[in-house]
Amino acid sequence: MSTRRFERAGRSSRRILLAAPRASCAGVERAIDTVERALAQHGPPVYVRKQIVHNAHVIADLERRGAVFVDEVDEVPEGALVVFSAHGVSPQVHTDARGRRLRVIDATCPLVSKVHAEARRFASSDHTIVLIGHEGHEEVEGTSGEAPENVRLIASADEVEQVDVEDPDRVAYLTQTTLAVDETQEVVEALRRRFPGLVGPRSDDICYATQNRQDAVKALVEECDLILVIGSRNSSNSKRLVEVAERHGCPAFLIDDETDIEPDWLLEAETVGITAGASAPERLVQRVTRALERLLGAASVEERTIATETTQFKLPLEVRR
Length: 321
What we know:
By secondary structure, this protein is α/β, with parallel strands linked by helices. The chain has helices spanning 3-7, 26-42, 56-65, 91-99, 110-124, 138-144, 181-194, 208-221, 236-247, 282-296; strands at residues 15-20, 46-49, 67-70, 81-84, 103-106, 128-132, 151-154, 171-175, 226-230, 252-255, 271-276, 300-305. The termini are far apart. Mean pLDDT is 94; it is low at 1-12.
């Protein structure tokens, strides 16, 4: 039994603590709204390259409305309408789309677009760009595509010594926007030890929503015996929330929805925390909360707020009317 559980052993009621902020961020809401408006204005089918955001429930809902998700633009009929996902695409994808005369609506998150611009800026000054991120993630592929000759991808501090650079005095770093803040800082510090002249972005690449959700989990861990993170398996920022909780000594599980909850997890849990990754809709939080209330038996529900998010992004011009 954990120290936290000993401290609360005398309490008769079980609690559910909701992290705030949680669930969909401004970039995710913008991307989903873009597809919904494209469907309303043009009618189905509307093609979408890759998943518009990494959440199975969102994808299934949009498919029911007439969105067709494809891996590459060569699967889209010539001249058709295609939406690019929130994770961004490389310049080559734009070129391929023009070659097929596709009508493009770009739903790239503005914070990802910022990283793309930084990659172009560093490449123009002949810097080797160390991109901290996960191989195969769409965001990393898009950023790498902005300056493929300059980018070196690493995922951890252990890889820093293996980075091959042209000029040790001209090294820059960028990061995937959905990484764990603490771990990323460790990588940057390792890079700076090897390359003292290391330069970085004008402002942090890890997005405000990712950081806020991680900070909210850190605020929960001291009160919780267990944290449930709502998000799909391919959601990078959701998986990072699980890792943050576990690094701070609290067991955590990633679930798509309430049907993934294992009753055995709750046997010794007096206080259960709930959060959701930035690509998960708030409606899933409410469903999981109701299910936990039933499973825990008359549990109280409280919210722990560490920040208030007011950020909003304008929709792409093509769907603003």
